[in-house]
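Closing statement on the C2E sub-project.
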Amino acid sequence: MYYQPIYSSVQREFHSAEALVRLKDTSTIGFVSPEEFIPIAERRGLIVDMSMIIFDQVCRFIQEDNLEKLGLQYIEVNLSAVHCMDNRLVPQLTSLMNKYGIRPNQLNLEITETTALDVNKYVAGNLGKLIEMGCGFSMDDYGTGYSNLSQIVDMTFDIAKIDKSLVWGYFESTSHKQKVLLSSTVEMFHRLEMQLVAEGVETQEQAEVLEKMGVEYLQGYFYSKPIP
Ligand code: C2E
Ligand code: CA
Ligand code: CA
């Protein structure tokens, strides 16, 4: 597992980190991107077993590296859509948290925007239990899926993560419309009383502009790449 720090523009310090899985074949192909192997694991029915290895490592990291000493409030973990709907999720996570003696609020689960929209339909049971226990939730990759805005209002997410494409669009495009897209998204979430993470922050200029917009948390290579 690698961890990418997330910076709080309000507290002006690193506040959390996102756990990102890595797979390295030492003999031939070398590094394989999670964007490649996660979808394969989902299709082959391996994702639940793989996720449990991921969660085990993350919980152990939280315990052994003493999150609070590092100044971090919680670790964000990507939760696959398939795992969201699996009834082993809650018992397995509960037993891991007990095994390592960590608090549910030291975990924040990231669910992609598209999965999030199915939350009410399929996974309310699982996720509802985790919310009750005190786990945090973030809506991941906002701006890439097919958002049904009226459903977003009903969801119980603490944080929305604005996808890098929306962030980069603001800075790369000369079109006024791209700029409106990001600034209105920020305004909308704030008016819905949700906090925001901007992904893909690569330059100081981007960091400063996003901070001025009031984006609470910033993540990207400008601060740090994911680190082992
Ligand atoms: P994601 O959840 O959107 O994760 C953010 C990705 O953006 C990571 O790629 C990260 O390394 C990359 N990134 C962060 N900051 C920057 C930046 O400033 N510039 C650029 N160009 N890229 C940046 P990574 O680690 O390759 O992960 C890709 C995707 O694979 C993730 O996208 C997530 O959907 C999935 N994934 C990764 N780890 C896990 C995991 O443990 N479980 C599950 N279910 N999915 C995972
Ligand atoms: Ca993520
Ligand atoms: Ca993301």
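The radius of gyration is 17 Å. With this model delivered, the sub-project is considered complete and its resources will be redirected to Aim 3.
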